[in-house]
Amino acid sequence: MSRHQGNDRKNPGSGRQGGFRKERSSRGNDKFASGQPKFFKQEAKPKSKPVAANPDEIRLNRYIANSGMCSRREADIYIQSGNVKVNGEVVTEMGYKVKPGDTVQFDGATITPEKKEYVLLNKPKNFSTSHDEEKNAPSVLDLVRNASRAKLQPVGRMDKTTTGLLLFTNDTDLIKKFTSPNQRSTKLYQVSLDRNLKFEDLEKIQGGITIDGHKVFVEEITYIDNEPKSEIGVKMKTANIKIVRKIFEQLKYNVIKLDRVMFAGLTKKNLPRGNWRFLTDQEIINLKNS
């Protein structure tokens, strides 16, 4: 055995650098065997930057809802059914985003989104929300025509003899919310009767009155302070003003005047009869959360 071999046996670390065996690569360059700690950092690959969302783009269902055609949920159904085109092409993709300059057609009609507007009117007599009562009769829309260029609609219906608060908006989701039979917002009405309301009849109303086969309940009914017993305050959740009339007509009273003095927290304060105003941002938030 050669001295060199003997030395290898005695010095197992010989022929190695730092205790690690040195190998020759096929290219003649040295490389460390597996287990070698990494002395050199590998250069990190540059990460691709996330594409920023375009603030001017808007989801197609929201675009349709903003135009006043229907709610977002209903817009999804129209989109899936192939009734919506963008730039002449049918779009059925949920989440599709409309870009500035795109032309959107809904059921063949070109639409544009509108800013949501909320207008509160203190309605006078002889203006109706329906053209069914009298043709060519004055409409409540005539009273708010100069409020906005948006296509405003009244929230609920009000006959021409009823006065008081009436909300207008182009927010179809809000209209649907407040005209739903399940809506839970409180309204307050002042009712003027042709004669004094008997106390026992007041108690009957408080206990619930059956109208057209359905039990109708009020939240509260009271005589108005410092007024004749024919002036009554009624608090209830229904948006159907006809129900308020029918409650008293069921007990053989005639309603001389019906005035809505509160609607979902909104009041007539500083709003004279026949005038309108825009809702504040806080009032809009309250309405949506009510």
- The portion of residues assigned to helices is 10-25%
N- and C-termini, Cα separation: 98 Å
The share of residues in extended strands comes to: 25-35%
CATH fold label of the largest domain:
Alpha-Beta Plaits
CATH level 1 class label of the largest domain = Alpha Beta
User: SSE string, helix = H, strand = E?
Assistant: HEEEEHHEEEEEEHEEHEHEEEEHEEEH
Average pLDDT, all residues: 83
Count up the helices: 8
- Main pleated sheet: 9 strands, mixed
Q: What is the rounded Rg?
A: 37 Å
CATH architecture of the largest domain: 2-Layer Sandwich
- The global form is elongated
Determine the CATH superfamily of the largest domain.
Pseudouridine synthase I, catalytic domain, N-terminal subdomain
What ranges have pLDDT less than 50 throughout 5 or more consecutive residues? 1-34, 36-40
Give the tally of structural domains: 3
Structural class: alpha+beta
The total of beta strands comes to: 20
Family: Belongs to the pseudouridine synthase RsuA family.
Protein name: rRNA pseudouridine synthase
Keywords: Isomerase, RNA-binding
Biased composition (Basic and acidic residues): 1-11, 20-30
Characterise this structure.
The chain starts with a helix and ends with a helix. The protein is built from eight helices and 20 strands. A hairpin with a 2-residue loop joins strand 8 and strand 9 (109-111). The chain has 290 residues and is α+β, with helices and mostly antiparallel strands. It is elongated, with a radius of gyration of 37 Å. Helix 2 crosses helix 3 (72-80). It folds into three domains: 58-111, RNA-binding S4 domain (Structural Genomics Hypothetical 15.5 Kd Protein In mrcA-pckA Intergenic Region, Chain A, Roll), CATH 3.10.290; 118-181 and 271-289, Pseudouridine synthase I, catalytic domain, N-terminal subdomain (Alpha-Beta Plaits), CATH 3.30.70; 187-263, Alpha-Beta Plaits. The strands form five sheets. Strands 10, 11, 12, 13, 16, 17, 18, 19 and 20 form a nine-stranded mixed β-sheet that branches.
